[in-house]
Design a protein that fits this description.
The complex is a heterodimer. Chain A is mainly β. Helix content of chain A is 0%, strand content 52%. Chain A has strands spanning 3-5, 10-14, 19-21, 24-26, 31-38, 44-50, 56-58, 64-68, 73-78, 87-95, 104-105, 109-114. In chain A, strands 2, 5, 6, 10, 11 and 12 form a 6-stranded mixed β-sheet that branches. Chain A has a 4-stranded antiparallel β-sheet with strand order 3-9-8-7, with no helix packed on it. In chain A, strands 1-4 form a two-stranded antiparallel sheet. The radius of gyration of chain A is 14 Å and the shape is globular. The N and C termini of chain A lie far apart (41 Å). Chain B is mainly beta. In chain B, 0% of the residues lie in helices and 50% in strands. Chain B has strands spanning 4-7, 10-13, 19-25, 31-38, 42-51, 54-57, 65-66, 76-78, 87-94, 104-105, 109-113. In chain B, strands 2, 4, 5, 6, 9, 10 and 11 form a 7-stranded mixed β-sheet that branches. The chains are: A mainly beta, B mainly beta.
Amino acid sequence: AQSVAQPEDQVNVAEGNPLTVKCTYSVSGNPYLFWYVQYPNRGLQFLLKYITGDNLVKGSYGFEAEFNKSQTSFHLKKPSALVSDSALYFCAVRDMEINDYKLSFGAGTTVTVRA
Amino acid sequence: EAQVTQNPRYLITVTGKKLTVTCSQNMNHEYMSWYRQDPGLGLRQIYYSMNVEVTDKGDVPEGYKVSRKEKRNFPLILESPSPNQTSLYFCASSLSSGQIYEQYFGPGTRLTVT
């Protein structure tokens, strides 16, 4: 079965500092990986995805993520955080080897960027 | 404007009273899905649909039904709601099931079952 773990419930950083949100996954085959962001009282918005190819993926709002197959990780990063990046972040995975089109999300990480 | 709409946005109901939450997308997407969001549990997939008349269970389908009679609509039906179905529900759609595209989410429906 596929699963995602986001080991940190909360991440707090100062504005201008680097931001990292961690994600590890478990699949039987190769993964499709996604990051989504949820701002207060809003639906989820897509940030970026890894399907194949370059391990460093660039996405919206200056975010990027690095796929590491040996560590089964897909950490989200931003070099310089903004107060407006404060939100709830979700990592999601789909197992390419299983033909059922399910998508599994992590529990989410709340990011707070202080001015 | 490309969007996923859900109705109602807020609903308070009583145990056992059947209800339907509607979901509609105007992007001609093949794939649609329902999730529930609970604190500490993230999003859990309830049901999904790969195309018209093709649906399958997600991770938490018990107590829910869905149908996909038209491409744009994917209603979620609770035949006999119970308090443990109190949650925030999201509908989502994406271009295709065969390829991996990002999902577009609706604004959410907050359901309270008393």
